[in-house]
Design a protein that fits this description.
This protein has helices at about 20-25, 25-55, 155-175; strands at about 10-15, 15, 60-65, 65-70, 75-80, 95-100, 125-135, 140-145. By secondary structure, it is an alpha+beta fold. The strands form two sheets. Strands 3-4-5-6-7-8 form a six-stranded antiparallel sheet, with helices on one face. A two-stranded antiparallel ribbon has the order 1-2. Strand 7 (about 125-135) and strand 8 form a beta hairpin.
């Protein structure tokens, strides 16, 4: 007589029920890259629109495969998709931070004039959110703040959420310091 193993209940971890089937697959890695690109492109487009609406200079952006920096005047947004490490949940973790200060510096470094250049103060974090992923397939990819039991956002929805925080920080910075000091 052949004995069959009893069905195994889904494992529980600090990241929620077993979500590893799709999220640990090679396909999910490419989906994650596409979703992060979609998020970054949405952030850049929304930042350009915000700059136009606020009559501000165009945003400075820096994009790489797992990082996005959007500098909008005196404030910035950084977003990083962390996918490697023992403490990283399946599908990765997204870290979004709003900064008061300059993250994406202007490219006007002139070493022979070091003494004449004013160094801006270091940036200060004013808002931070860590998000985890849930997805059973590409079509169900969502970013969740505070774990998968919280409301999830598609990449464009998350871009809107982050830009609302950046816009708020931008307005606060302008209100607190209406005439920014020159950087050079």
């Amino acid at each position: 007589m052949i004995e069959h193993a009893a069905p195994v209940a889904p494992s529980e971890s600090r990241f929620g029920p077993d979500r590893t089937n799709f999220l640990t697959s090679h396909r999910a890695q490419s989906v994650g890259a596409r979703e992060f690109t979609k998020l970054a492109e949405s952030l850049v487009a929304l930042a350009k629109r915000a700059a136009t609406l606020n009559s501000a200079e165009p945003p400075v952006t820096r994009l790489s495969p797992d990082r996005c920096i959007v500098q909008l005047g005196p404030v910035a947004l950084t977003v990083a998709h962390i996918r490697v490490g023992n403490d990283v949940p399946p599908g990765g973790q997204l870290l979004a931070i709003i900064w008061n200060g300059t993250i994406a510096p202007r490219g006007d470094h002139v070493p022979e004039r070091n003494g004449a250049r004013r160094v801006p103060p270091p940036p200060v974090s004013v808002w931070e959110e860590s998000l985890v992923v849930s997805a059973a397939a590409e079509s169900s990819w969502h970013w969740h703040p505070n774990g998968i039991d919280s409301t999830g956002y598609t990449s464009p929805e998350l871009a809107e959420r982050c830009m609302a925080q950046l816009q708020s920080a931008f307005e606060t910075a302008l209100r607190d310091n209406p005439e920014p000091a020159p950087l050079s």
